[in-house]
Specification:
With 124 residues, the protein is mostly helical. It has two domains: 1-27 and 93-124, no CATH class; 29-92. 51% of the residues lie in helices and 11% in strands. It contains seven helices and four strands; from the N terminus they run αββααααβαβα. The strands form two sheets. A two-stranded parallel ribbon has the order 1-4. It has a two-stranded antiparallel ribbon with strand order 2-3. It is elongated. The two termini are 30 Å apart.
């Protein structure tokens, strides 16, 4: 692969790889959206899929944009439910093959540190 060859030209023996899990090594966008969709359905009885038609990651900030009548209580309830049901949709995550292959190429000779902003439970 051309990408790996280009990377090999700039990698030194003491290079340390930092790799973000959520969104870089693992594509969790669908899992994230499905979790929000279920939570919104439970709290507001609204099908989020009908409101949200983007191919970008769905975020908390978008809840108020899509549902202007959302109260702070409902918002916090949606976020809590989303976190609780997230595990149900883990089968929708996908490994980013190009990132994985690059990591695999150097895993025996270099230090790799996986990083994430997600909670410890979600990362595990």
């Amino acid at each position: 692969m051309k990408e790996i060859e280009e990377i090999q030209n700039i990698i030194k023996n003491d290079t340390i790889f930092l790799c973000d899990l959520d969104g870089t090594l693992i594509d969790t966008d669908e899992t994230n959206f499905l979790s929000y969709q279920e939570a919104v359905k439970k709290v507001k009885n609204i099908d989020l899929k009908l409101l949200y038609k983007s191919n970008k990651r769905f975020t908390q900030e978008q809840l108020y944009q899509l549902i202007p009548s959302l109260t702070e209580y409902e918002f916090s309830k949606i976020v809590k439910i989303k976190k609780a049901v997230y595990v149900k949709y883990l089968d929708k995550t996908k490994v980013n093959i190009k990132t994985f292959e690059a990591i695999e190429q150097f895993s025996n000779t270099h230090k790799l540190i996986l990083v994430t902003n997600s909670s410890k439970n979600r990362a595990i």
